[in-house]
């Protein structure tokens, strides 16, 4: 039996190979820079397969990859502060999931491209929140990130920008971020499952694409240290910008 025999009926071998290639590139970016995988994967993958399918695919892959990191994060995190932001995710994730489930694919792709472009600008700005703690602000940041995660699995930049700017030890900030996304991914899994976005097709593709993504992460990690962090981040920013442009629906007749 060939690989094509295992693919969902709406996914050709060409599409599966394209998703694997995109996963490898985004995984490599994640491995050497620590961020950017979703911002690269979603615009490109949504241009070759349905946004609902690729968002569910990325969620399953990330959920499995992040699970082993959660026990250590639980021990090191400021669980009380993280719980406030997680409350925001509980609000934002279902809303984002709802829009993903009802919007037309082309409309969703435009939103994803605009979101990723805005998040790239946020990353380039180097924004860090250094003001006072406010419960309403924490809930708002969590809701924004949750909405981005529910709609397109791109909730990273707001949370990272918020926690890295707080006056806490880096190890605690990292643990808070990991713990937040563990909860956010769980909410997304529940929301996606109840709306039918977690399907046989997305699970089958995760078995095929997931290992390629893992290889990309490993390969990217092996590159770390061969150049400065500034160079690696610059490369990742360029890849994200290229993904945004290449994923624009207006270019479908040109690039695809």
From TrEMBL:
Alphabetized UniProt keyword annotations: Cell membrane, Membrane, Transmembrane, Transmembrane helix, Transport
Main location: membrane
Regions that span the bilayer: 12-29, 49-70, 82-103, 109-127, 172-191, 203-225, 231-251
Pfam families: TauE
Localization in the cell: Cell membrane
Protein family membership: Belongs to the 4-toluene sulfonate uptake permease (TSUP) (TC 2.A.102) family.
Protein name: Probable membrane transporter protein
């Amino acid at each position: 039996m060939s690989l094509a025999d295992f693919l969902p009926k709406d996914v050709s071998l060409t599409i599966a190979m394209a998703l694997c290639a995109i996963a490898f590139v985004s995984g490599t970016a994640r491995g050497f820079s620590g961020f950017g995988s979703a911002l690269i994967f979603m615009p490109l993958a949504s241009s070759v397969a349905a946004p609902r399918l690729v968002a569910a695919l990325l969620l399953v892959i990330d959920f499995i990859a992040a699970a082993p990191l959660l026990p250590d994060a639980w021990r090191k995190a400021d669980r009380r502060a993280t719980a406030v932001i997680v409350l925001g995710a509980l609000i934002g994730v279902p809303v984002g999931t709802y829009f993903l489930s009802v919007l037309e694919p082309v409309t969703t792709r435009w939103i994803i491209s605009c979101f990723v472009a805005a998040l790239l600008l946020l990353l380039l700005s180097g924004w860090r929140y250094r003001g006072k703690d406010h419960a309403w602000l924490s809930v708002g940041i969590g809701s924004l990130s949750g909405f981005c995660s529910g709609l397109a699995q791109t909730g990273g930049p707001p949370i990272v920008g918020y926690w890295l700017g707080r006056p806490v030890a880096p190890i605690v900030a990292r643990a808070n971020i990991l713990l937040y996304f563990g909860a956010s991914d769980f909410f997304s899994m529940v929301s996606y499952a109840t709306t039918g976005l977690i399907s046989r097709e997305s699970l089958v593709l995760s078995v095929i694409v997931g290992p390629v993504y893992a290889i990309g992460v490993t390969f990217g990690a092996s590159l770390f240290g061969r150049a400065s962090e500034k160079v690696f981040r610059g490369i990742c920013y360029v890849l994200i910008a290229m993904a945004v442009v290449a994923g624009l629906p207006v270019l479908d007749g040109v690039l695809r």
